[in-house]
Amino acid sequence: MGLEAHPFVSRAISPSVRRPQLDGVRGLAILLVLVAHVVGLNGAGLAGVLLFFVLSGYLITSLLLREHEDRGRLDFRAFFVRRGLRLLPALVAFLVLYLVAVSTGRFGTSFKEATRGVALGLLYLTDFALGLGRGWVPDLAHLWSLAVEEHFYLLWPVALSMLLLRNGARGLLRPVVLLICLGAGLRVGSVAFALLAHPLYIYALPTTWIDSLLTGAVLAVIMRSGRAGALRQLAGRPVVMWGALGTVVLYAAWPGVDITLFTYVLGMPLLNAAGAILICGVELPGGGALRRVAGSSGLRWLGIHSYGLYLYNSTCIMLARHSLGHGLGNRFLGLGIALALASLSYAFVERPALRLKDRWGRPTVRSS
Question: DSSP string of 220-282?
């Protein structure tokens, strides 16, 4: 999930200044995930995670390009300090609480099994464990998406730095688009391999989501290059904006769409484009009603608390089902507990870590 605050909007603004409309996009993404876990509409989960990935690629690339523009280079140490402080404290707190809950013996998961899942989560390997069907733990299966995103954080700054060194900021668009095509090819190749040779769980593998993350990166490159005129025209057309939102909602409401071949060949590129259009609609002037919806207090609250909600909701719902039964009421009870824990996580874990991130994660000034 893309949970970084919006990058610099001026040279003097801290990296953790938030953009309300982008919080709204993030809120829509986590709302789709919650619907999937409570109601069982897996298409909603796919659409929500994909929207997170496009947004994450956009935000992280925007931040890195701004840093390169301001300082002439990328500070990898500062980047990884920021990422670690944003993601690890809340993850560790969640996993500790999970182990405490499992140790009571009331939830049907052995402590040994739970510790294996915790280790995979901390090492960001749940995506491979789930995708290859090797040793994953159902209570923590949702951590696959955090692992996919972490792999992007590890590789993309280095790759972007190399592209900037070779092509310069003005020459980024073509190689990143080529990388998107390569990512789409890897997804289709993984599907073919699974169909012909090995029953992989394609959904969780990082090869499935490369082009989603890079779609956001391309959007950032265009927005920062001064060539966003066509995007402004797009953002000014309500039929395009509402069509993109309708595409996401329709996909989310389509039962069983997550297991169709159409999804992995054509559906995901379509959703990537819809996600990029939605981000344009709330970032550029002309977004109109869609921009106002994204800035609404409810979606913004969900967006601000989205990391904690993503960490807790699936596990709380599953533990409620283990101990109380599979009824819809029990799933809503699990969701209510997740909402409370996410609020506490943001207040007492994430916000203090964000203050440290601003202090310790500043890029070093280049000597003249």
Answer: HHHHHTT--HHHHHHHT-HHHHHHHHHHHHHHHTSTTGGGSHHIIIIIHHHHHHHHHHHHHHH
User: Which structure tokens are listed for 241?
Assistant: 């904006």
What is the band of 8 on the pLDDT scale with cuts at 50, 70, 90? very low
- Model confidence pTM above 0.85: yes
> Which tokens is 289 given?
């009603």
Count of CB atoms situated within 10 Å of the CB of 240: 15
pLDDT at 103 over 80: yes
The whole-angstrom separation of Cα 317 and Cα 328 is: 10
Q: Which of 220, 283, 282, 227 is nearest to 65 (CA)?
A: 220
| Residue 76 near residue 158, CB atoms below 8 Å | yes
CA 240, 270, 295, 285 dihedral sign is: negative
Which DSSP string do the residues of 122-146 spell out, in sequence order? HTT-HHHHHHTTSS--GGGGGGHHH
What is the reported pLDDT for 7?
29
In the numeric block, the tokens 């998406």 are attached to 145
Dist CA 218 CA 222 (whole Å): 6
